[in-house]
Amino acid sequence: MAGGRIPAELDVSVDSAGVEAAIANYADGRFWTGALAPGKYEFVVQGKRIKSVRRAVDVEAGRTSQLGLTLEPAALRTLRFLLPKGMPRPRALSINLRNAKGELAWVGGLGPEGPLEIEISLPSGTYRLNGYGEGKTLLKETLTVEGLRDLTTVLEYSLAVL
Which residues contact 134 (CB under 8 A, 6 or more apart)? Predict the structure, then answer.
């Protein structure tokens, strides 16, 4: 099993193919996955005003594994995606951001209902914002985050088939 201490307002998940593990976060910052079969797992820690962290961990039978994280501050941004008149809403919209080195900084998606809006935390830097839906590229933009001050305005991006 894997455990550790992180701020309670953060989310911990396992992002490994074919693995579904319930993560229990406790108020004191500990988390617990329950029993995982021995092997290598990718854990993701994310939350408001914290840079998302991905960490590969080797889980051994009968041992407790630790993530060993260093959390970095990040600025909060709200991104809203606009549909041009006459364009149907995609059944699913996949969004990713890559930093200047091309590394994945954030990935997520929006389903067929609810607002086309995401709230993300990013450290300072320039990012490539990509959106995909219905098997098509719908968005390619640049997003710049300056400093760690939260933006209170919503950043709006128009979707179109590119």
Answer: 90, 91
CB atoms closer than 10 angstroms to residue 114: 7
To the question of pTM greater than 0.70 for the whole model, the response is no
For residue 133, the number of C-alpha atoms closer than 13 Å in the C-beta half-sphere is 23
**Which sign does the torsion angle of CA 94, 135, 130, 71 carry?**
positive
Q: What is the pLDDT of residues 47-102, one digit of tens each?
A: 778 888 888 888 888 888 777 777 788 888 899 999 998 989 898 999 999 989 98
- Domains along the sequence of the chain with CATH: 3-59 (no CATH), 75-158 (2.60.40.10)
Is residue 32 within 8 Å of 1, Cβ to Cβ? yes
Return the amino acid letter for 41. Answer: Y
Q: How many CB atoms lie within 10 A of CB 115?
A: 8
Coil, helix or strand at residue 20: coil
Nearest Cα residue to 156 out of 99, 100, 118: 118
